């Protein structure tokens, strides 16, 4: 089994949740999202972010607006839609349940050692 592949798959599994959570804080520029995801070691490949943002937009979970920039072309800032907020709330509930379940299992394993 390839350990690095397993780590990548775990990160991919929570990437959508993390992106929606970042956007939930307010309007956010894609490069700022990328920077935060990279520093948190959730994502390191830029080519993954843009297709995912497009898919989330096409699903009605987020929207964007163009903002003029004084230092170049206009920037696209992302925001959650009402459906996106509801979806994120549901993902948060699932995350809490999953986190609790994993902690329970890993704690049981620690007690057996």
UniProtKB/TrEMBL annotation:
Coiled coil spans = none
Give the residue range of the signal peptide: none
Alphabetized InterPro entries for the sequence: Metal_resp_DNA-bind_regulator, Tscrpt_reg_PadR_N, WH-like_DNA-bd_sf, WH_DNA-bd_sf
Q: Which domain of life is it from?
A: Bacteria
The UniProt record lists the Transcription regulator PadR N-terminal domain at 19-89
Q: Which PANTHER family match?
A: PADR-FAMILY TRANSCRIPTIONAL REGULATOR, TRANSCRIPTIONAL REGULATOR RV3488
Q: What is this protein called?
A: Transcriptional regulator, PadR family
Species of the source: Pseudarcicella hirudinis
Give the source lineage, highest ranks first: Bacteria, Pseudomonadati, Bacteroidota, Cytophagia, Cytophagales
């Amino acid at each position: 089994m390839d350990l690095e592949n397993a780590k990548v798959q775990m990160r991919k599994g929570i990437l959508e949740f993390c992106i929606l959570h970042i956007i939930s804080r307010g309007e956010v520029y894609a490069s700022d999202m990328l920077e935060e995801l990279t520093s948190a070691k959730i994502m390191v490949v830029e080519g993954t972010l843009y297709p995912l943002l497009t898919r989330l937009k096409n699903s009605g979970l987020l929207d964007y607006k163009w903002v003029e920039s004084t230092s170049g072309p206009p920037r696209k800032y992302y925001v959650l839609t009402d459906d996106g907020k509801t979806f994120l709330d549901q993902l948060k509930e699932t995350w809490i349940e999953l986190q609790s379940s994993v902690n329970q299992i890993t704690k049981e394993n620690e007690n057996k050692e």
